[in-house]
Structures are given as C-alpha cells and as structure tokens.
Design a protein that fits this description.
Structural class: alpha+beta
Largest sheet: 5 strands, mixed
Order of helices and strands: EEEHHEEHHH
Number of helices: 5
Strand content: 5-15%
Helix content: 10-25%
C-alpha cells in the first residue's frame, strides 16, 4: 500500500473517537451492536469490502457484520487518512490498486449508455439511461415510478436470462401495490402463477 493510504491503529470503541460530525472529513465503519470501531477512512470504502476483510465477523462481539455494520460521517485525527482496528491484518484489500474508492452519486441520465446493467426493464429508452447494478440504492420519482417498480419486481423474479431469478420484497407504504399489474407483466414474460405468488405481510400498528 502506498503512502497515501498508510495504515494507522484505531481506537477500539466508537465512543473513544471524536464524533463531531460538523467537522466530518471521512467515514467511520463500526458495529452497531457493540460500538466496535473497524475502519476510519478519508475516502469512502464499499461496506462489502469491510465485511470481507473482517471475515463478516465483528471482532468485538462476534456478530455478523452483514447485520450490524454501519457507516457514518466522522472527523479524522489531524494528519491521518486511514485507520483500522488492530485486528485487521489485510487493510490493503480495502482498496483497489491505485486510487481508492470514492463515494459517487449519479443521476440515471448521466450514466454511460454502454454501461452494462444487471437488470433490464425491457424498455429500450429507459435501459439506455438507467443502468441497474447490484448494490445500488435507486430512487424512482414521478407518475411512472409506481408502474416501473412493478415491472422491475417481475423482471427480477424472472429466471435467468434476462432476470435475476430472485425473490422480491415490495414495501408498500402508500397502499399502491397492484397485483393485477404484476400478473400482467408475469404473463407477458411467460412466468407461472406459482413463481409470482404473493405473500402479503401487513405491518401491525402498535396498540395504545
């Protein structure tokens, strides 16, 4: 690892660190269960890499980082750029050779047209500007967003190719889910009813 990412030891608990977010200069990766500090880095690091380097296990409590890992803005010690928990033995694997990963927010319309999508909608005009990739958090807005979300769900269920052969969870906070639309998309893709069978799980309201 080059001098830009020289590894420094990190205090083991988040409460031992300066958590003044008003002067945040980097990102703190820690366990939400036991407050074990894992990585403090100026550049953003893909959380999945942190999980892999720590073998998906928190060194403090032993729980799976897939369920407990959290990322938050954090201040960095003066002159420091990259600090890790002393348990971490392969810190160089947190970065690609060369430049480290940086956080990046992009509009769908700005993505390259030749960018390979993991999940296509089947609508050429949309697929040319909206490249859906694994690990993305995508927000759809506008009148067509509801209809498009139904289509994407069915396309994700569709066996490979061209879908993901995956289960889908539709969190319906606005009571807009339309089973008829799902059935229509499923029929057009040749999916059987059992594959698109719905399992509604209403959220119970707390009793006063």
């Amino acid at each position: 690892m080059g001098t830009r990412n020289t590894v420094e030891p990190l205090q083991p608990k988040t409460w031992q660190l300066d958590q003044d977010r008003s002067s945040a200069q980097g990102y703190l990766y820690s366990c939400s269960l036991c407050d074990e500090a894992l990585v403090l880095s100026k550049p953003f690091i893909n959380p999945r890499r942190v999980q892999l380097v720590f073998l998906d296990t928190c060194p403090g409590c032993g729980f799976e980082l897939e369920k407990t890992l959290k990322v938050q803005p954090s201040a960095l010690p003066p002159g420091k750029r990259f600090l890790t928990n002393t348990i971490c033995k392969n810190a160089e694997e947190l970065f690609d050779p060369g430049e480290p990963l940086e956080a990046k927010l992009s509009r769908g319309s700005s993505l390259l047209r030749d960018f390979q999508s993991n999940l296509a909608t089947g609508i050429e005009a949309i697929d040319e500007t909206l490249a859906l990739r694994f690990g993305q958090l995508v927000s759809l807005q506008g009148e067509a967003s509801n209809a498009l979300s139904h289509l994407i769900c069915v396309r994700a269920i569709n066996p490979l190719p061209p879908g993901l052969d995956s289960d889908v969870v539709f969190v319906d906070g606005g009571n807009v889910f339309d089973a008829y639309t799902v059935s229509k998309h499923a029929f057009s893709l040749g999916l059987d009813q059992e594959r698109t069978k719905l399992h509604p799980s209403p959220v119970e309201q707390p009793h006063n």
